[in-house]
TrEMBL record:
Family: Belongs to the tRNA pseudouridine synthase TruA family.
Protein name: tRNA pseudouridine synthase A
Organism this protein belongs to: Paenibacillus naphthalenovorans
Origin superkingdom: Bacteria
Protein EC: 5.4.99.12
Functional summary from the UniProt entry: Formation of pseudouridine at positions 38, 39 and 40 in the anticodon stem and loop of transfer RNAs.
Gene that this polypeptide is encoded by: truA
Self-association and partners: Homodimer.
Annotated positions binding substrate: 105
GO MF: RNA binding; tRNA pseudouridine(38-40) synthase activity
GO biological process: tRNA pseudouridine synthesis
Length: 253
């Protein structure tokens, strides 16, 4: 299944004792729908306040509900900030996380005077000007296989910090003349991401956009393998798991 959710009200995706999570809501809906206590497998975790447009989950069920009716049936038991919008029957060996080839994350910043109140859950407001071209120059240097120790939390437990970024780009919406601001979307597609990796990359790009550091510093930050040299961790609500790839689909929308 492919799932979208507004992560504002949740303590992340993964089940945690005493916390409200997206996984809990999905498994509760499945219980109400099928009568089975099912454990779902997700393509990855998202932190508290982080959203998803294309989170992928899988599970095994004995339910006789036709697959083409599963989405509508699931949505009738889900809160309005979680939506299942695609369902497929797959081979028994499919694993939402292990079978994934690539993932794309998107981070959105609203640059300018006023926020857009209808999108404020999904955009981080930055009232000061940002140099988008300098940010693009810095982002390009992250493409390829690198050790991303400098761009992950010191709490990261992954044994290897080497990841490959296949593509990374920035798209800007037209200026909203009433709000005197525009939305900037930062996309990163890779074979995997470390804890807080995208948010630290974005925090570093914001430093570059503000002129606090040069775009050429990205290379030396990578080589240093030192978290203290990168920028701050950007706020969670601008981040969205955009798409998970299981084949060779085009990277860019």
């Amino acid at each position: 299944m492919t799932v979208s959710y507004d992560g504002t009200a949740y303590n992340g995706f993964q089940t945690q004792p005493g916390k409200n999570t997206v996984q809990d809501q999905l498994e509760h809906a499945l219980l109400r729908l099928t009568g089975e206590e099912l454990k779902i497998i997700a393509s990855g975790r998202t932190d508290a306040g982080v959203h998803a447009k294309g989170q992928v989950i899988n599970f095994h069920t004995h339910s006789r509900i036709p697959v083409e009716r599963f989405c509508l049936a699931m949505n009738s038991w889900l809160p309005r900030d979680i939506l299942v919008w695609d369902a497929k029957q797959v081979e028994d060996g499919f694993h939402a996380r292990k079978s994934a080839k690539r993932k794309t994350y998107r981070y959105t910043i609203r640059c300018g005077k006023y926020i857009d109140i209808f999108r404020s859950h999904f955009e981080v407001h930055h009232p000061a000007p940002l140099c988008v071209e300098s940010m693009r120059d810095g982002l390009k240097q992250l493409i390829g296989e690198h050790d991303f120790t400098s761009f992950c939390s010191t709490k990261t437990v992954a044994q290897s910090h080497v990841r490959t970024i296949y593509d990374a780009w920035i798209e800007c919406e037209p200026m909203d003349t009433e709000l005197q601001s525009f939305a900037m979307h930062i996309y990163l597609t890779g074979n995997g991401f470390l804890y807080n990796m995208v948010r630290i990359i974005v925090g570093t790009l914001i430093d570059i956009g503000e002129g606090k550091r040069s775009s050429s510093e990205i290379r030396s930050i990578l080589e240093a393998k030192d978290r203290s040299l990168a920028g701050p961790t950007a706020m969670p609500h601008g981040l969205m798991l955009w798409k998970v790839f299981y084949g060779e689909e085009p990277l860019r929308p």
